[in-house]
Amino acid sequence: MNGAQALIRTLVSGGVDVCFANPGTSEMHFVAALDSVPRMRGVLALFEGAVTGAADGYGRMAERPAATLLHLGPGMANGLANLHNARRAHTPMVNVIGDHARYHKGFDAPLESDIDALTGWLHGWSRTSKSPDEVGADAAAAIAAALRAPGQIANLVLPADVSWSDGGVPADPALPAPPEPVGDHRIREIAEVLRTGEPVAMLLGHGTTRERGLLAASRIAEATGAKLFAETFPARFERGAGLPRVERLGYLAEQVQWQLTDVAHLILVGAKSPVSFFAYPDKPSELVPDGCAVHVLAVLGEDTAGALEHLADVVAADTKPVLQDAVRPGLPSGDLTPQNWVDVIGALLPDGAIVADEANTSGLLLPGATAGAPRHDVLTLTGGAIGQGLPVAAGAAVACPDRPVVCLQADGSAMYTISALWTMAREGLDVTTVVLSNRSYAILRMELQRVGAEAAGPKAADLLDIGRPDLDFVALAQGMGVPASRAATAEELADQFGKALAEPGPHLIEAMVPSLF
Fold this sequence. Notes:
The chain is α/β, with parallel strands linked by helices. The chain has 21 helices and 18 strands. It folds into 3 domains: 3-164, Thiamin diphosphate (ThDP)-binding fold, Pyr/PP domains (Rossmann fold, 3-Layer(aba) Sandwich); 184-315, Rossmann fold (3-Layer(aba) Sandwich); 341-511, 3-Layer(aba) Sandwich (Rossmann fold), CATH 3.40.50. The strands form 3 sheets. A 7-stranded mixed beta sheet has the order 9-14-13-15-16-18-17, sandwiched between helices. The protein has a 6-stranded parallel beta sheet with strand order 2-1-3-4-6-5, sandwiched between helices. The chain has a 5-stranded parallel beta sheet with strand order 10-8-7-11-12. Strand 7 (200-204), helix 10 and strand 8 form a beta-alpha-beta unit.
């Protein structure tokens, strides 16, 4: 057995049975070894950013890692933007990064690069396998590291000669440590804060925007009057009828400052204190109101949902959570607008849907339109690196083949990883993509105004315009094997969206929605 075969056998025995891949020469023995381990599913993507984004979507929904197969340092570099998003989402992932044979590295071949610098940038776990008899143990350690609470990226660098050499030894799974419980003393401290009678807000972060955390947080809020907010971009947010409705913090600093007006105490649960996404002239970076005390109930790596449940039992023992009623918007009519297209989604969103949301400026009203829709999961742009929506949707569909996936995708960011459509077609993934086509980088138009840039004229405007020439998403999708259509009215979008949801496999709708900015 060679090193590659031992590696794949170890991955599969540890529950890592999907590998999103864009391989090259150094990884060919890994590719060949796939036929000797039928339980490993290889999923090809045409660009490494689609590979890493798909592994992110898979990990968020499956709650266990997928593997990626990346070609040397340049291949990993191509995938870094969506690895950044995955890092911010605390997604468990095992990157297998091919490298030159150890004896070949000293020759400075054209693809030689500093892979360690790239893996270090992710602030996760990294190791280079030194021999085929160690690669199995290295893989087991990588899986355990990826699953260590709250979840992280594990990078295993695989030199080509370690991959092809005999002597590979598979390893048994290494169990990760469970998350740390929050001590009684901290529960008591936060309970006292909630009993002061002063205005309190709780900010829900990683591990608390699922059913357990939401139900406990709602009990606390109902019993104490505390305001509830979720972080701006949760990795996975369970929403809809039958669950508590929790507002997300806004993207704009001014929104957050308004939401936290007069709050005297801010309690963090698996979240960090809110800060502005960017620096703006004469505006603060820290968004906690002056005079507001910040308290920590649970930090990343601790049992955040368990801490909320414990706290709810202390301060809200006899209180029931407040649940969202089942209510949908009516189907609108007329030309599509930023205000009405979201009502089409809210009116027709199927039960159990997974929504990959990269609608950006076109989706500002989406949370309100879908709050009372059937229960669904929302996967958001955690790290702000655009080009996440399409591959995350693909990965979620691989993880949950029995659930419909809806990708709400801005047109500009769609082009970063448009090739993910090809993977959806190749794998027959049940993803309905709605591209919000406003022919511009609308969010940058807004930011151009907000940063106070002077003398922004036609040259500046031209750099934010993607309508010269127009992008034809129907043709792009069809060229990659995805059935596609175009909608200019609410009636057309409703008809096409409903039909796409009713048919298996991928579909794309280009929705002609004008820009807000």
